Each structure stands twice: as C-alpha cells, then as structure tokens.
Amino acid sequence: MTFPAGVGMTTTMAPYIEQAQREGQLYIEQPYELYSEDNHEAWRRLYSRMVPKWEQYANEHFMRGIANLCLDPDRVPRLEDVNKFLCNLTGFRAKAVSGYVPAFQFFDCLRQRDFPTTITIRHQDKLDYLPEPDIFHDIAGHVPMHTDKAFADTLVRFGDCAHTAAEIAASIPDEEEKVRKLSSVIKAMARFFWFTIEFGLMKDRSTGGLRAYGSGLLSSYGELEHSLVSPLVQRYPVQLEWVINQYFEIDHYQPLLFVVDSFDHLFSLVDTLEAWMKDGRLDNVAPGEPEVGESDLKSFLHVGGA
Length: 306
What we know:
Elements: H1 15-22, H2 37-57, H3 60-69, H4 79-90, E1 93-97, H5 103-111, E2 114-118, H6 135-146, H7 149-170, H8 175-198, E3 201-203, E4 210-212, H9 215-218, H10 221-229, E5 234-237, H11 240-244, E6 256-260, H12 263-279, H13 294-303
Parallel strand pairs: 1-2, 3-6, 5-6
Antiparallel strand pairs: 3-4
C-alpha cells in the first residue's frame, strides 16, 4: 500500500507505521516524503526551545555531538543524513523501527552499534510530554551521545551483558527458576539503563557542578532544568546496589537521580553489572517497576535456546 506525500508521521496517527505493525515489520525504512508540514513544525518548535536549555544544562559531550551531527533545526532529520556523520565518528547508526523492540533485540542492536529509532513525531499539542519515544527523543536526545566514543563503547558493552544474561538463563535446567531469575536480571538491567542512559547526571569537570547526559532529560524541556535545580530531586553518587533495586515510574518527573564521574566510570559500572550477573547478585532484586513483559522475557529465552 502506498500513502500520499505529507499524510503525516505523527505518533499514534501514522498509517505507514500501522501497516508495518500489522505486517509484523519491526525494522523499516524512513518514508521521509510522508512527513507533514505539521510534523516539521513540531520538530522546529521542539528543537528551538531546547537549544538554550542544552547550553545551560547539557554535558559537554552532548554539545559536541549536536554540533557534529549538523541537525537541521527546522526539519525532521533524515536518518541517512544523521548516519553519514554518526558512522564516521563511532560506527553507530540510527535504525528505523515501527514500534517497541523487545529487550534482548534492543540490547543486541546496541552491541552491533545500531540504535533502534522511532521515526514518528509527537503532535504539536503534546510537546511537553509523551509516554512513548518519538524521533525527537531518539535523535535529539540519544544520538548526540552516540557520537562520543567512550559512551558508544559503553552501549556496546551493555549489549554484551544481554548475551551473558541469555547464556546464564540457558544453563538453568528448571524452567520456573529460569524464568524467575531471568525476570530479576532483566529488571536490574532495565533499571540500570533508566538511571544512567535515560536519566543520568554527570560531574562537570570545568565547574565542579552537575550536567545531564541522560536522554530522557536532554529531550525534555521541563525536566532537564528541574533535574538539576529543583530541591525536590534527590541526587546521589551512583551506587550499583541502589540502582538495580530502585523502582521507577515514567509518568512524572523523576524524584531520584544518580551521578557518574565520567563515561569511563559508567563503562566500569557495566563491567561490574555483568560480574554481579555471573555471581547471581541480580537474581533477587527488589520488586516493583518496571514489570518484565512477556515479549521481553521471550526475547531472552529464545536466544538462550529454551
């Protein structure tokens, strides 16, 4: 089926995405001609109001990344143009998807230096908050960080952890115990990703203060400033045992955030996460959000040969 040019690629209102989902297509092309002028205007408004926030609160690696990607502030980006700059810097590339990517496949994409990227964009009356990701969150929030070699290597290392988790699960003969332990490990990995890659803070080497590197913060007009100046936010030096046992909720500003010293520090935390996984220290993390969905669990079990 073909769609008329400019029909729109608005989140939850994109016929192209609906068809891809019906046909079971997860990895797709970006049909750039389908973006409407309203879509481009949404991007322009999102981007223009974030620039002064980034200059004040984003970390130096992100600011270099934004400059290196040469994003057009007025038009939704073409992924092929983004990848021309991104691939040359760290080997990463944005890979268009039609919707939710099960956990193992998502982490395995990172391992291969592919970043699953949503290609729809939020409606203009929902600029401040959208529960699901969109192209602004993914390209303007995540991808600038992928231009930094140390950060990119950390994502790849995190993908390695997913393979380790699948291998460990495959070695457990009792099916009930396998599911219980794997569910706990996936929950721990999701919490780690949330409190670092999505909502992490970092020490600023030049000022001694804090800056944001988490993409959920860097793509949020309201929460970016709130995360760094509000007295309602608790900010603690990252401790792995806290992170993996701390539940989170996605529908409000985060009341608790963790601080890393550097991306080398973050990389070392992923090493520790994998070591704890092998030692069984992730097998019984505290209950609570996020819940581990069936598709996420199956994605690991299938790879593990169960």
